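Lay summary

Proteins are chains of building blocks that fold into shapes. Our project writes down both the chain and a compact code for its shape. Here are two examples, one after the other.
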Amino acid sequence: MKAPAGPAPEILVVDDDEGLRLLVSDCLRTEGYEVAVAASGAAAVAALRDRRPDLMLLDLQLDDMPGSALLEALRKTDRKVPFIVITGQGDQNVAVEMMKQGALDYVMKDAAILDLLPSVVKRAIATLERDRSLASAMSEKRALEQRILELGETERRRIGADLHDGVGQLLTAAELMCVGLKDDVAALDARLGGQLGTIAGMLRDAIAQTRALARGLAPLDEEPEAFQNGLTELAARAESIGRLKVRLDCRCAEPLRDRAAAGHLYRIAQEALHNAVKHSGATEVLIRWEKADGRFRLDVSDNGKGMLRSPSDGLGLGLMQHRADLIGAKLTLESRPGGGVTVTCLLPSKS
């Protein structure tokens, strides 16, 4: 039962029993693993300053410190290593408790240890490799999803620019022509002049709708304060509908310079506000933007009737969660029956 093909995994054996340490080391080397040893907890800590083995075999009862104390010391210095517990007779309950705290497996110090150890180690290494492969696949998936969203945002900005600079300009030119013709035609035919005035008014409405569409497709500009400005315009537009009062409480003067994060946070605020308008029956919404404890915080709170369905039932909520995941933010939803909903998004600051 040899180690998997490729670079041999490195295993650190931490045990104060010299005889057992030698036997275990020889057994693992025979299986094709690279092996390092430490005769105490202090020696293990020192060894892990300079190396990061794939797996650690840890005796729970070291002379200078309990195995649990060694693990705690490694956690504090961010030198955590996957581990298997080596325990003596009668300590099975302790070993099981250590597995609850992260141990991959355990082996007993008895006559069968050298027979069982290779299969236990191989199983642990295979588990670690599966976890790494899964983590890599998930990372690639998130990168692909991020790229797809970025392409979508780029295309929306392009369409928004075409609407504003192309269609919008043509409509404006047509309106000006109608206004210019109206006075000339009205002198000859009042009815036709009135119709031209009506057409000019319709064109003005079309221009306003085109600009609104363009702004909705590309709500944030290139300025450092684009996110705060976008929230201000979002609140103003929502309130202009006349169905509810929207207040913006912007307590963060620091600009959000990460454009991808700004775009996703804006869409989260937009979706939360849309839900409040469409589903909650709210009369007031508060949008709060602040920074505290090294994190940006976005809250959208309403005074509506609360969430009547499971959050998983709403596609909009799923999209908000997806956007938060892509930028490494934490999204939470608090529903208070009869007291409204608060959507909170916490984004770690990179500064």
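And here is the second example, written the same way.
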Amino acid sequence: MIFNKKTILIIGGTGSLGKVFVKRVLSGKLGTPKKIIVMSRDEAKQHQMRMSYLHKLVATEEVIYNNFKNTLEFRIGDIRSYADVCSAVKDADIVVNAAALKQVPTCEYFPTQAVLTNCIGASNIVRAIKENSYPVNTVISVSTDKACKPINVMGMTKAIQERIIIAANILNPKTRFICVRYGNVLASRGSVIPLFHEQIKNGGPVTVTVPEMTRFLLSLNQAVETLFAALRFGKTGETYVPNVPAATVINIANALIGKRKIDIKITGIRPAEKMHEIMVSEEEATHCIRRGDYYVILPMLPELRKTSKNEPTALKKEFSSKDTALDFTETIKLLKKHKIMIEDVDLSHSEELLR
């Protein structure tokens, strides 16, 4: 019962992942938490999230003005601010870092901003714990497949974030620092599927960069399950990677379009974009093991490496979306299985297609 009587801080908790994470933790299936703290910069998203959880229980005024008495607490704060991070981290048992600048084009145009959030932000968490001796048990940071052999600023800053978190174990031995790394989360903000739905809703065309391009796909619940698995079984400095399928962008588009007479427009590969994503590189494969449904990348630093004869190397080559791409029929089955829902978008066409 990893959350029982624990205070959990999720930074960037008003995003798609944060919402599902909070809902799953509040279910109590992994223990009843003492408190969940959602920290982010967005006042409007916090208010919406607060009301969606609490408005049925108590009056609106009581929800807003008893914020710090509720199990679910909201804090306005910025991961870039060391003071804000200290204020939130000091009482936490578990810290989940889901704050990020994650849009590839945005990070390309504003690389300094990406560094401040994705790198300095992670460093602020480590620094706060070290300099103030906060009794945090575990810090888990959310990364992306773009951090593996990165070619864009978003991936580069996430790769550095991973190293900041992993290396933190050496100078902070009382806290366990671990990472999760996964690909495109189905229906999350910024992913291709909401874009396709919106284009279909408006009659098209659906824009596809390169038909053969592949991407790993997992649901929000699978993303949260990866966090839970890492929290339950992860060891110091490890990175958890879910073993999930991939699909070509053209198959995703055609599956969502179904029988509608909507054109597909090929636009060409975008700047800083890969044809195929990699979840585990060839170099990382030499110290990657299998644990249940997950690949686990062991820390590269020798001070942190804890090998086991019962956990042999799991991969002989890189784990690429090109090698695990589903065919068209299997892509439809995957979309149906996860019952993709997107806020504020009419999804009736998806249900019609997947019946």
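What can we say about the second shape? Residues 204 and 262 are 6 Å apart (CA to CA).
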